[in-house]
Amino acid sequence: MSVNAPSRRDAKRDATSAADARRASRPASGRPDGTRGPRESVISRSAAMLVMGVFTLYFLLPIFWLLVSSTKTVTNFNSTAPLWFSATAIQDTITNLGELFTRQDGIYLRWMLNSIAYAGVAGLIGTVLSAMCGYALAKYRFRGREALFNVFLGGVLVPATALALPLFLIFSQVDLTDTFWSVFLPSIVSPFGVYLSRLFAASSVPDEIIEAARIDGSGEVRTFFTVAVRLMSPALVTIFLFQFVAIWNNFFLPLVMLRDSSLFPVTLGLYTWNSSVNQYPDLRTMVLIGSFVSIIPLLVAFLSLQRFWRSGLGSGGLK
Amino acid sequence: MTTTTQRRRTATRPHPAKRPAGGGSRYRRAIAVFVVPFAVLFTAFYLVPILYAVWQSLQKIERQGTFGAPTQVFGGLTQYVLVFQNDVFWGSVLRVLLFGVVQVPVMLGLALVFALLLDSPLLRGKRFFRLAFFAPYAVPGVIAAIMWGYLYAPDLSPFSAVTSKVDLLGSGTVLWAVANVVTWVYVGYNMLIIYSSLLAIPTEIYEAAKLDGASQFRIAVSIKIPMVVPAIILTAVFSVIGTLQLLTEPTVFRQFTSTISSTFTPNMLVYSTSSVPNFNLAAAFSVVLAVATFILSIGFLRLTQRKDAS
Question: Do A152 and B42 touch (CB under 8 A)?
């Protein structure tokens, strides 16, 4: 899937929480479907719950299976019930985790750290640069501003997969393929972050505050880092988290750029392990537990992201 | 804080900013500090690669005699002629279009039903359902494909009663096996987009229908669905774009089945063409694909802008 496409949709998600907060603050009776009318029959309620229940299984059962499989050794993988924990689940999990983190000199941990470096550090730098650029585009008038913005906006529409190959050719001419930087540097750029930053800077940083800071003698750059960043922070967290996810999930760029397995992000690493499962059957357990461990940071990020948005929008920034 | 509707609108369409606080001349240095770092990286990692791909696609390899050293010379539209004559390329394009025609409506239909149920008074535990349905979005495509690959496998699957009888990774079914993975990951995501659009509908609109005794089903069909059409169009166009870029899931599935060729989707063809290596043809494939994607995106922007104007 396109990496840009999902992140382009975040603005929408932001609206969800805004509307949620709005709804929460409203008395329940104010909303027609907040009051449980007697007209809704037991049958339609049960049908609705049944549909949602069935699909809850569809969405969660695969993840649950992955969890259960992570607690099994190669030997009892086929001999025990596939969807429930075996009697030796706890010690088997510990064995598996030990094997996962020590196999090939602990390369799995290396992959996780690489992913965190690519997604976390590049995402963070990218967010700061996008915020600065979007802020300037929103708050200063200068020649060519709209043209510049439109060029960046055009970048939003370029699929990341279309960039990977030409980037590879360019990097190979300066001998930078198969290096940390070949994945890290391109990941920093997020035109969508600029687009969102501009929107949020325009709506959440009032011109009067910037003027006041000027009168107090604060320089422009200092004003941005001390005042504007605070006002934009809920939006910045949003931008960061979606850039983080886009980089973490990017498969094509590292696939094209990297040969040295010690530079792999965890997704590419697990992919290569899975390709040798036929020669080394015990790798299968490693692929499964490695997959499960690798999605934990993302699940945690998404849960805390939700909370942050709630509080960020609840405390309101500026009304 | 702006209201939700305004927020949504500004989110889908860039608004010219309000009167900026400063004129350019006085703050030239500050503006440079803010804009130049991003602009430099954008040029290096977006503009230059795009121009380079276009340039590559206009080159061709020429040999002096049969065994001569290959040299790259200007080839004009040679590569593009090859692209349009390439049956494998069009086969892969048709394959992902077939995929999109089936998978996108199924996925968005489910997303719409779930969003409507979340917005109706019929459900309890909405917060749980919202999180549960959204959770797969946190699973990277590679991991999702590996997981489902094992779930489909005849011998390893917990559903081997089914998978040992029906070959889910056979040549006739594998496209839909991939479609299921994509659906699994993205339904909850699209559900949230449509749901946020439902939340933005002013409640007064329901009052009259309520007073007239309309059922929830009736309200959903006659009022809610027409009002979230723009959100559905948005998700549809992004999904079609995503379909054209399909790469990760089928690439991973090649580890589970031999029924997926290295040219199964357009992007896989680009990758395998470049590993030949034939960078010029690969670049031409990429350019054609990117232009098609770009046209779709612009079409979407037009569509949503027209909605906003009315």
Answer: yes
